[in-house]
Amino acid sequence: MSEPIDNTAGLEILGKANAVVAALEARAALTAAQIAETVGEPVSSTYRLLQTLTAIGWVETGRGRGLFRL
To answer: What is the number of H-type helices and E-type strands within the chain?
Structure first.
């Protein structure tokens, strides 16, 4: 019999992605540092998540340098 799969990490990352999307929904565009402050995550982690969200098309770079938007 196989052991149950722990989905905690997957749910955690989805929660973080949701927080980033919600932060961007509330504002037209934000920097990675502004998003990190809003969601309470380190800038480096937020930037990696933004790269992933950009790669799958959920987020795009904004018009200004370092900005992200939906």
So the answer is: 3, 3
Buried b (16+ CB within 10 A) or exposed e, 30-53: bbbebbbebbebeeeebbebbeeb
Nearest CA-CA partner of 56 in 41, 35, 70? 70
Q: What's this model's pTM, rounded to 2 decimal places?
A: 0.83
pLDDT digits (tens, 9 = 90+) for 7-24: 788 888 899 999 999 999
Residues in the chain: 70
For residues 49 and 32, what is the distance between their CA atoms, to the nearest angstrom? 10
What lies within 8 Å, CB to CB, of 60 at 6+ separation is: 54, 68, 69, 70
